[in-house]
Amino acid sequence: MSIRTGVVNGVATIEIARPEKKNALTAAMYTAMAEAITHAGSDASVRALLITGQPGVFTSGNDLEDFMQRPPAGPDSPVFRFMQALLECEKPVVAAVTGAAVGIGTTLLFHCDLVYVSDEARLAMPFVSLGLVPEYASSLLMTQLVGHVKAAEKLLLGDPFTGEQAVEFGIANAVLPAAEVLPHARRMAERFNTLPPGAVRDGKRLMRAPQRAQIQAVMAEENRLFAERLRSPEAREAFQAFFEKRKPDFTRF
Predict the structure, then answer these.
(1) For residue 188, with 0-12 CB atoms within 10 Å meaning exposed, 13-18 middle and 19 or more buried, which class applies?
(2) CB neighbour list of residue 201: distance below 8 Å, 6 or more residues apart
(3) Using one digit for the tens of pLDDT, what is the confidence trace for 70-107?
(4) pTM above threshold 0.90
(5) How far is Cα 230 from Cα 43, in angstroms, rounded to an integer?
Protein backbone atom coordinates (compact mmCIF):
# COMPACT_ATOMS: atom_id res chain seq x y z
CA MET A 1 0.00 0.00 0.00
CA SER A 2 1.27 3.46 -0.89
CA ILE A 3 -1.01 5.53 1.33
CA ARG A 4 0.25 6.39 4.80
CA THR A 5 -2.15 7.55 7.47
CA GLY A 6 -1.92 8.66 11.06
CA VAL A 7 -3.31 11.08 13.62
CA VAL A 8 -1.01 13.56 15.38
CA ASN A 9 -2.23 16.43 17.54
CA GLY A 10 -5.79 16.29 16.26
CA VAL A 11 -4.81 16.16 12.56
CA ALA A 12 -5.42 13.04 10.47
CA THR A 13 -2.79 12.91 7.75
CA ILE A 14 -3.26 11.12 4.44
CA GLU A 15 0.11 10.90 2.70
CA ILE A 16 0.40 9.72 -0.89
CA ALA A 17 3.68 7.82 -0.75
CA ARG A 18 4.58 6.25 -4.07
CA PRO A 19 7.39 8.52 -5.27
CA GLU A 20 8.91 5.87 -7.55
CA LYS A 21 5.72 6.17 -9.66
CA LYS A 22 5.32 9.93 -9.16
CA ASN A 23 2.54 9.17 -6.66
CA ALA A 24 0.31 7.76 -9.41
CA LEU A 25 -2.94 6.55 -7.85
CA THR A 26 -4.22 2.98 -8.10
CA ALA A 27 -7.66 1.61 -7.24
CA ALA A 28 -6.27 0.27 -3.97
CA MET A 29 -4.90 3.70 -3.09
CA TYR A 30 -8.26 5.36 -3.78
CA THR A 31 -9.92 2.80 -1.52
CA ALA A 32 -7.41 3.46 1.25
CA MET A 33 -7.91 7.22 1.01
CA ALA A 34 -11.71 6.90 1.02
CA GLU A 35 -11.56 4.70 4.11
CA ALA A 36 -9.13 7.07 5.84
CA ILE A 37 -11.40 10.05 5.21
CA THR A 38 -14.46 8.19 6.46
CA HIS A 39 -12.63 6.97 9.56
CA ALA A 40 -11.29 10.45 10.36
CA GLY A 41 -14.78 11.86 10.00
CA SER A 42 -16.07 9.57 12.74
CA ASP A 43 -13.05 9.92 15.07
CA ALA A 44 -13.85 12.48 17.76
CA SER A 45 -10.13 13.10 18.36
CA VAL A 46 -9.67 14.37 14.79
CA ARG A 47 -10.34 18.06 14.23
CA ALA A 48 -8.95 18.37 10.69
CA LEU A 49 -7.56 16.31 7.81
CA LEU A 50 -4.33 16.95 5.93
CA ILE A 51 -3.66 15.52 2.47
CA THR A 52 -0.09 15.63 1.18
CA GLY A 53 2.36 13.93 -1.15
CA GLN A 54 6.12 13.62 -1.43
CA PRO A 55 8.79 16.27 -2.03
CA GLY A 56 8.48 17.36 -5.65
CA VAL A 57 5.22 15.56 -6.36
CA PHE A 58 1.72 15.70 -4.94
CA THR A 59 0.29 13.16 -7.38
CA SER A 60 0.63 12.57 -11.12
CA GLY A 61 -2.99 11.43 -11.24
CA ASN A 62 -4.23 7.98 -12.16
CA ASP A 63 -1.87 5.09 -12.68
CA LEU A 64 -2.97 4.53 -16.27
CA GLU A 65 -2.05 0.84 -16.42
CA ASP A 66 -4.01 0.09 -13.25
CA PHE A 67 -6.80 2.41 -14.40
CA MET A 68 -7.25 0.56 -17.69
CA GLN A 69 -7.23 -2.81 -15.93
CA ARG A 70 -9.81 -1.58 -13.39
CA PRO A 71 -11.80 1.17 -15.14
CA PRO A 72 -14.50 2.88 -13.05
CA ALA A 73 -17.80 1.20 -13.79
CA GLY A 74 -20.19 2.75 -11.29
CA PRO A 75 -20.58 4.74 -8.07
CA ASP A 76 -18.92 1.97 -6.05
CA SER A 77 -15.70 2.23 -8.07
CA PRO A 78 -12.74 3.18 -5.83
CA VAL A 79 -12.11 6.55 -7.51
CA PHE A 80 -15.75 7.59 -7.21
CA ARG A 81 -15.89 6.38 -3.58
CA PHE A 82 -12.89 8.59 -2.84
CA MET A 83 -14.50 11.56 -4.57
CA GLN A 84 -17.70 11.12 -2.59
CA ALA A 85 -15.89 10.64 0.72
CA LEU A 86 -13.92 13.87 0.31
CA LEU A 87 -17.00 15.72 -0.92
CA GLU A 88 -19.02 14.61 2.10
CA CYS A 89 -16.29 15.14 4.71
CA GLU A 90 -17.74 17.39 7.41
CA LYS A 91 -14.39 18.27 8.96
CA PRO A 92 -11.99 20.81 7.44
CA VAL A 93 -9.56 19.42 4.90
CA VAL A 94 -6.17 21.02 4.29
CA ALA A 95 -4.00 20.17 1.28
CA ALA A 96 -0.22 20.55 1.06
CA VAL A 97 0.76 20.46 -2.62
CA THR A 98 4.46 19.72 -2.60
CA GLY A 99 5.04 19.56 -6.35
CA ALA A 100 3.34 18.28 -9.49
CA ALA A 101 -0.45 17.87 -9.26
CA VAL A 102 -1.96 16.29 -12.36
CA GLY A 103 -5.56 15.35 -13.13
CA ILE A 104 -7.34 14.47 -9.92
CA GLY A 105 -4.28 15.85 -8.13
CA THR A 106 -5.63 19.26 -9.14
CA THR A 107 -9.38 18.62 -9.14
CA LEU A 108 -9.44 17.27 -5.58
CA LEU A 109 -8.17 20.66 -4.42
CA PHE A 110 -11.54 22.20 -5.34
CA HIS A 111 -13.03 20.11 -2.52
CA CYS A 112 -10.49 21.01 0.17
CA ASP A 113 -10.98 23.95 2.53
CA LEU A 114 -7.43 25.28 2.73
CA VAL A 115 -4.78 24.68 0.06
CA TYR A 116 -1.07 25.55 0.22
CA VAL A 117 1.19 25.01 -2.78
CA SER A 118 4.91 24.90 -3.41
CA ASP A 119 6.67 27.48 -5.56
CA GLU A 120 7.77 24.41 -7.56
CA ALA A 121 4.20 23.17 -8.06
CA ARG A 122 2.87 22.56 -11.54
CA LEU A 123 -0.83 21.83 -11.81
CA ALA A 124 -2.59 20.41 -14.86
CA MET A 125 -5.90 18.83 -15.90
CA PRO A 126 -5.04 17.05 -19.19
CA PHE A 127 -8.24 15.01 -19.44
CA VAL A 128 -9.20 16.01 -22.98
CA SER A 129 -5.73 15.20 -24.32
CA LEU A 130 -6.31 11.64 -23.09
CA GLY A 131 -9.62 11.44 -24.93
CA LEU A 132 -11.55 11.92 -21.68
CA VAL A 133 -13.56 14.70 -20.04
CA PRO A 134 -13.04 16.80 -16.90
CA GLU A 135 -14.01 15.14 -13.62
CA TYR A 136 -14.80 15.88 -9.96
CA ALA A 137 -17.05 18.83 -10.95
CA SER A 138 -14.03 20.67 -12.37
CA SER A 139 -16.03 21.57 -15.48
CA LEU A 140 -18.29 23.59 -13.18
CA LEU A 141 -15.93 24.81 -10.48
CA MET A 142 -12.99 25.87 -12.66
CA THR A 143 -15.30 27.82 -14.93
CA GLN A 144 -16.91 29.55 -11.95
CA LEU A 145 -13.52 30.54 -10.56
CA VAL A 146 -11.85 31.91 -13.69
CA GLY A 147 -14.52 32.24 -16.40
CA HIS A 148 -15.04 30.21 -19.54
CA VAL A 149 -12.10 31.39 -21.63
CA LYS A 150 -9.48 30.80 -18.92
CA ALA A 151 -11.10 27.49 -17.98
CA ALA A 152 -10.93 26.42 -21.63
CA GLU A 153 -7.14 26.89 -21.57
CA LYS A 154 -6.84 24.60 -18.57
CA LEU A 155 -9.59 22.04 -19.29
CA LEU A 156 -9.74 21.84 -23.10
CA LEU A 157 -6.14 22.62 -24.04
CA GLY A 158 -4.81 21.15 -20.80
CA ASP A 159 -2.34 24.00 -20.25
CA PRO A 160 -0.43 23.56 -16.97
CA PHE A 161 -0.23 26.36 -14.44
CA THR A 162 1.96 27.39 -11.52
CA GLY A 163 1.37 27.64 -7.81
CA GLU A 164 1.23 31.42 -8.14
CA GLN A 165 -1.53 31.07 -10.73
CA ALA A 166 -3.38 28.61 -8.48
CA VAL A 167 -3.50 31.35 -5.84
CA GLU A 168 -4.54 33.92 -8.44
CA PHE A 169 -7.35 31.64 -9.67
CA GLY A 170 -8.65 31.05 -6.15
CA ILE A 171 -7.69 27.37 -6.01
CA ALA A 172 -5.01 27.85 -3.34
CA ASN A 173 -4.52 30.11 -0.33
CA ALA A 174 -0.78 30.73 -0.62
CA VAL A 175 2.37 29.69 -2.42
CA LEU A 176 5.41 28.91 -0.25
CA PRO A 177 8.97 27.64 -0.65
CA ALA A 178 8.83 23.86 -1.12
CA ALA A 179 10.30 23.02 2.29
CA GLU A 180 7.76 25.20 4.09
CA VAL A 181 4.55 23.91 2.49
CA LEU A 182 3.89 20.86 4.66
CA PRO A 183 4.87 22.45 8.02
CA HIS A 184 2.72 25.49 7.24
CA ALA A 185 -0.24 23.36 6.17
CA ARG A 186 0.06 21.31 9.35
CA ARG A 187 0.13 24.46 11.50
CA MET A 188 -3.02 25.68 9.77
CA ALA A 189 -4.72 22.33 10.28
CA GLU A 190 -3.77 22.37 13.97
CA ARG A 191 -5.51 25.74 14.41
CA PHE A 192 -8.81 23.85 14.32
CA ASN A 193 -7.85 22.22 17.64
CA THR A 194 -8.66 25.48 19.42
CA LEU A 195 -11.95 26.12 17.61
CA PRO A 196 -15.39 24.72 18.53
CA PRO A 197 -15.73 21.63 16.29
CA GLY A 198 -19.50 21.82 15.92
CA ALA A 199 -19.36 25.43 14.77
CA VAL A 200 -16.58 24.56 12.29
CA ARG A 201 -18.64 21.71 10.84
CA ASP A 202 -21.77 23.84 10.59
CA GLY A 203 -19.82 26.69 9.01
CA LYS A 204 -18.32 24.39 6.39
CA ARG A 205 -21.72 22.85 5.67
CA LEU A 206 -23.28 26.28 5.15
CA MET A 207 -20.48 27.37 2.83
CA ARG A 208 -20.84 24.24 0.71
CA ALA A 209 -24.63 23.85 0.82
CA PRO A 210 -25.71 26.27 -1.96
CA GLN A 211 -23.84 24.29 -4.63
CA ARG A 212 -24.08 20.80 -3.20
CA ALA A 213 -26.90 19.54 -5.42
CA GLN A 214 -25.40 21.16 -8.51
CA ILE A 215 -21.99 19.64 -7.84
CA GLN A 216 -23.51 16.19 -7.39
CA ALA A 217 -25.44 16.55 -10.66
CA VAL A 218 -22.38 17.73 -12.59
CA MET A 219 -20.25 14.94 -11.13
CA ALA A 220 -22.83 12.34 -12.16
CA GLU A 221 -22.81 13.59 -15.75
CA GLU A 222 -19.02 13.88 -15.83
CA ASN A 223 -18.68 10.33 -14.45
CA ARG A 224 -21.11 8.98 -17.05
CA LEU A 225 -19.24 10.63 -19.92
CA PHE A 226 -15.84 9.75 -18.44
CA ALA A 227 -16.72 6.04 -18.33
CA GLU A 228 -18.17 6.27 -21.85
CA ARG A 229 -15.10 8.00 -23.24
CA LEU A 230 -12.76 5.48 -21.63
CA ARG A 231 -14.12 3.00 -24.18
CA SER A 232 -13.77 5.42 -27.12
CA PRO A 233 -11.28 5.01 -29.99
CA GLU A 234 -9.81 8.41 -29.11
CA ALA A 235 -9.00 7.30 -25.56
CA ARG A 236 -7.55 4.01 -26.81
CA GLU A 237 -5.23 5.93 -29.13
CA ALA A 238 -4.22 8.36 -26.36
CA PHE A 239 -3.49 5.59 -23.85
CA GLN A 240 -1.66 3.43 -26.39
CA ALA A 241 0.50 6.40 -27.36
CA PHE A 242 1.28 7.00 -23.68
CA PHE A 243 2.43 3.42 -23.16
CA GLU A 244 4.41 3.49 -26.42
CA LYS A 245 5.98 6.83 -25.44
CA ARG A 246 4.90 8.57 -28.64
CA LYS A 247 2.67 11.48 -29.59
CA PRO A 248 -0.95 10.42 -30.16
CA ASP A 249 -2.42 10.78 -33.64
CA PHE A 250 -6.02 12.02 -33.63
CA THR A 251 -6.08 13.05 -37.31
CA ARG A 252 -8.26 10.10 -38.33
CA PHE A 253 -11.07 11.02 -35.94
Answers:
(1) buried
(2) 90, 91
(3) 888 778 899 999 999 999 999 999 999 999 999 999 99
(4) yes
(5) 37
